[in-house]
Structures are given as structure tokens and as C-alpha cells.
């Protein structure tokens, strides 16, 4: 079963020590896309040896923490998000948005494998129209029906950090704010409708000093 037109796949670690053999869409490999897109974000998107901060970029979630993606529950989370598990990426609607997350001053990594179901060996068995291929923060929409709406709440539900697509209790906390393309979009992040080449900054507490306003997507995305 294949979920991509990309020539070179990347093996991505996704929770519980398992791996997913996932390839992203576009013309470059998932690994190179993650590398190039990470470097081009308006906020550095790589871990810092000096420790996490709003300007040092995402850090890997702590094992067992609220941001950890549990691949074993993916099918139920996709269903809770109001989406379906597909056997291949859709081709009727295809676009990308970018998500940065900051929790009380600490940047949080968006994991690879959101929206994928896996078997006991960690291999992908199904895919949602809304998913991630890598840890760059790029949200992929590859839908079989043109014109369907997808929201940030659905992405967070598939991730497992909120209980449903309309909930704004995220990682156990209320009081989240969201900005889209550098503009304040209020305190209802779940309702943000995804669109092509958006930069979405989700934050709790004080807004980062360097709030991301744009994201340079790799060629083909």
C-alpha cells in the first residue's frame, strides 16, 4: 500500500519506538523537505542545545507527555475528527498549511505521522485527508473530494492533544490563542479553517516575541 507520489520516502520515528515508512507529496524527499522548510521558517524550527524557548524552535515532546503522538489510537482519533481513513492520498484537493505551537514560552514539535493508521509493526495501513509527513509543521490536505473544509481543530484531534474538533482545551489547558499569517485570530483555534500556505501560530500564555508570520514552503508544496 502506498500513500505518496514522492520518489524517496523517509523513515520517521513516531512514538512508542515504532516507525512509519512515509513519503510526503511534492518533488523532494520528506527528509529534505523537513530540512529545507525547517530552515526557512520565520522562527527557527530546530532544537537548540541551549534549551527550548519561543525563539529557539521546536523540541521533541517528552515521552508520555501530552504532546506525544500515540499511533495506536489513530483510527479512533481520525473518526472523532469527523474524517475517514483512506487507502491512498486523495488527488482532488491538495494544499498545505504550516503550524507552529508554543506552550508558555516553549516551542513544541509537531510530530510526523498525524493522520496515519499503523499496524503492530508500525507500518502505515491508512491515511486521513489531513495529515503530516514529517516534523516540519506542514499540514498536508490531500482530499478525494474537492471543496471540503478542514480545520485546525481536526488536526489537533488527530494528533490526540484535544478531545474533539470543536474543543479548545489543548494538551489539558484552556486559554489558547491563535494567529494566522501574523494576525490575531482570537481564542477559538479549533475553528481556524485551513487554507493554502497559511502560517498558523498556536500559543498559550504570552505570545512569542518573534511570532511567525510566514513560512517558506518547499518547492512543490
Question: Explain this structure to me?
Answer:
- This protein has 221 residues and is an alpha+beta fold.
- The chain has one domain (10-204).
- Helix content is 12%, strand content 23%.
- It has three helices and eleven strands; from the N terminus they run ββααββββββαβββ.
- The chain has helices at residues 30-40, 74-80, 152-159, and strands at residues 10-13, 19-22, 93-103, 106-108, 116-118, 124-127, 130-131, 138-143, 176-180, 183-184, 199-204.
- The strands form three sheets. Strands 3, 4, 7, 8, 9, 10 and 11 form a seven-stranded mixed β-sheet that branches.
- The longest helix has 11 residues, at 30-40.
- It is globular.
Compact overview of the structure:
It contains 3 helices and 11 strands; from the N terminus they run E-E-H-H-E-E-E-E-E-E-H-E-E-E. It is of the alpha+beta class.
Quaternary state of the chains = single chain
Q: Please give the alpha-carbon distance between the first and last residues.
A: 23 Å
Q: Structural class, from helix and strand content?
A: alpha+beta
- Strand composition percent: 15-25%
Number of domains: 1
Helices and strands, in order, run as EEHHEEEEEEHEEE
What does the largest sheet look like?
Answer: 7 strands, mixed
The chain-level mean pLDDT equals 79
Helicity, in percent?
Answer: 10-25%
Low-confidence parts, pLDDT < 50 over ≥5 residues?
Answer: 4-21, 27-64
Total strand segments: 11
Total helix count?
3
Shape: globular
* Rg over CA atoms: 16 Å
Amino acid at each position: 500500500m502506498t500513500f505518496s507520489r514522492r520518489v524517496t520516502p523517509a523513515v520517521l520515528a513516531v512514538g512508542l519506538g515504532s516507525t512509519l515508512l512515509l513519503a510526503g507529496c511534492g518533488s523532494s524527499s520528506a527528509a529534505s523537505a523537513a530540512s529545507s522548510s525547517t530552515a526557512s521558517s520565520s522562527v527557527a524550527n530546530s532544537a537548540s542545545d541551549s534549551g527550548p524557548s519561543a525563539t529557539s524552535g521546536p523540541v521533541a515532546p517528552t515521552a508520555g507527555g501530552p504532546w506525544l503522538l500515540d499511533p495506536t489510537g489513530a483510527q479512533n482519533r481520525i473518526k472523532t475528527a469527523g474524517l475517514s481513513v483512506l487507502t491512498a492520498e486523495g488527488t482532488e484537493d491538495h494544499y498545505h498549511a504550516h503550524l507552529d505551537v508554543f506552550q508558555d514560552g516553549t516551542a513544541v514539535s509537531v510530530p510526523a505521522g498525524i493522520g496515519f493508521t499503523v499496524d503492530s509493526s508500525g507500518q502505515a495501513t491508512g491515511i486521513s485527508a489531513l495529515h503530516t509527513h514529517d516534523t516540519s509543521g506542514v499540514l498536508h490536505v490531500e482530499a478525494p473530494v474537492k471543496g471540503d473544509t478542514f480545520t485546525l481543530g481536526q488536526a489537533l484531534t488527530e494528533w490526540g492533544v484535544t478531545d474533539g474538533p470543536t474543543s479548545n482545551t489543548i494538551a489539558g489547558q484552556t486559554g489558547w490563542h491563535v494567529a494566522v499569517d501574523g494576525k490575531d485570530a482570537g481564542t477559538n483555534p479549533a475553528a481556524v479553517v485551513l487554507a493554502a500556505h497559511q502560517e498558523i501560530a498556536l500559543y498559550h500564555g504570552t505570545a512569542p516575541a518573534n511570532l511567525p508570520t510566514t513560512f517558506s514552503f518547499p518547492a512543490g508544496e
